[in-house]
Amino acid sequence: MSLASLELSQVLYDDSSYFSLAMALITLSPILLMASYAALAVFMREITVINMWAGQFFCEAFNLVIKRMVKQGRPAGSVANGYGFPSSHSQYMGYFATFLILHLHFRHKFGLRDSSESILFRALAYIVLIAWASIVAYSRYHLSYHSVSQILWGVCIGVSFSICFYLVTELIPTRRPNSLFGKVRTYILRNPISQWLRIRDGWAVWQDGGWEDQWQLWDRLWIRRTKPALHTS
What we know:
By secondary structure, the protein is mostly helical. It has one domain (18-226). It is built from nine helices and no strands.
């Protein structure tokens, strides 16, 4: 019986360097994001979250197709097996960061009273997403899994794929509901299975996806429920 190594979660790094350890941990974040997608999809049941998750799978499949077509090896001295063009981690994070930035720009409005606070919060979110994607991409170079060109191509492909996917599945359907893409989205939302699963498009009703209104409702019910207990004590 021959044994194989599952390289999906196996990362080799310089154990004498804390920085190398940090890069090894950061480079695993795309794997952790998949678990986050699943948890958010089940908990929120938002079509945008499910759509983003599906797009991530399509983007990964596209990466696999490109690798099989180009068949470019990894840089000299790399400990990884398989083809290296384009970097799947870099493409993954390029897609992830771009989709969220587009969503925050076009559909999400932070529930802050002061507009300057909203702009600051939005800018901070953009910076964090871009920095996260950039650090993951750099970690692939630092750990010698990919060359600079493989990483840059991965980021560019991920960003481009995300823009096209968001345009077709989110922006056009929500801006033009009577278009073909809009009708497909409406069917996905209103078919019996989706209704049974309680899948919704919260951002079509609330500018922040419903979080502020849901919290306000919880706050009122909480006060109403705890008032008798406060008076009796």
